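User: For my dataset I need records formatted as: sequence, then structure tokens, nothing else. Please produce one.
Assistant:
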Amino acid sequence: MNDVVSKLRNLLGSDCITDPAVTDGYLWDWRGLLRGSAACVLRPRSANLLSQSVRICREAGVSIVPQGGNTGLVGGATPDDIGLQIVISTGAMRKIRTVDPVDMSIVAEAGATIAELQTAAAEAGALFPLSFASEGTATLGGALATNAGGISAVRYGSARDLLLGMEVVLPDGRIWNGLRTLRKDNTGYALKYLFAGSEGTLGIITGAAMKLAPLSVGREVAFCAIESEDQVLDFWMKLRAAAEGNVRAIEYISNSCVELAKREGLRAPVGVADHYVLVELTSSRPDAGLKDVLEAFLAERLEDGTIVDAALAQSGEQQKQIWRLRDDQTEIQKKAGRDFKHDVAVPVPRVPELLRRSRAVIESDFPEATVVPFGHVGDGNIHLNVVLPATLGAERAAEQGKQISQAIYDIVLSLGGTFSAEHGIGRAKVDMLEAKRDPIELDLMRRIKAALDEDGSFNPGTVFRPS
């Protein structure tokens, strides 16, 4: 291993990092649940240098763990604890190569953050639609590798839906340059979609061409109090009919989430209810009349009883404070106790049943637990999280957490849903994938993995157990 590290240092210089004080930040998953070890951490500054690094590792039979912003929630960018793997971070590859407001496309390197892409697009008079809470740290490569969703997916889709082309370093070190911005290209297999969502197991994304959208010039945000799960769904159906094409986000937030937020000093702008919905409408037309549309819609919903209270933000600062009730949930829940995350999705009509059944089972069987669900009503993706008291012993909490997760996943699958909606499989859900996914699907995925990564050296233990 020393010989491999020496060759990598000769290639990359100070971008081959072995100092434990520096490498430590690359060895933990974001949630702090997994800690690995690595022979070194590489931060190549170009696809060519990354390619050469891969070739050196391949010749020595050394496994590689690709890493973007390291904001994932399923341990997919964390090395094992043996210390013989090498982490390759794309964080030093941050150039935004082109922003084309005519073609409505942006081409950037994998290490550019989502926030940087948003800023670059806005400066060119366009919108980069992907958006989620960790966008200041999460990178383009990581977002594509996990097919990240986020709050705007109901309107613009997930990362894969915005993808036009990409550049990828393959496990044998070759570079596939598919950085095309064509909207239509039927020349064989659409390889770009194979790598999007592959979690670094088939190749390392080094650059991508992404779709832009017209820049929003109008924005309205409202926060609504709702009495029942069925009314949450009813609200969404009526909003979709009233404001089709202008709904950027429709987010569900439970009362338990809001109560946790209040402990952190945040304030809900409406009266207490069991359920809340956050709505954002946007338009690229200055004369769209979004405020009138939303005011009229909320008045009608108050009158017909779909909602019991509503607040329409009157300023940008009020919009920001309302969004904090949703955006800060991951951090808030992390501080509240031992949190167990469940990134699940069901068909949209089954969302009320998912919320009801999950809450009933957990409150009945695990009285110490607090159910704190929130998420994306419009696409059925609910983060059905559960917090156990910090005072609960680690062993007991782990056992209860395992039982809670199994109960939730059983309900999700019975409703025709999925146990991973937008966070991926990583290392955390490997056993579940193998136990619950269709055998033919698993066989096809394994065949693809074997064809592209015959040595099994790219991110072993992620998606599948290491061979």
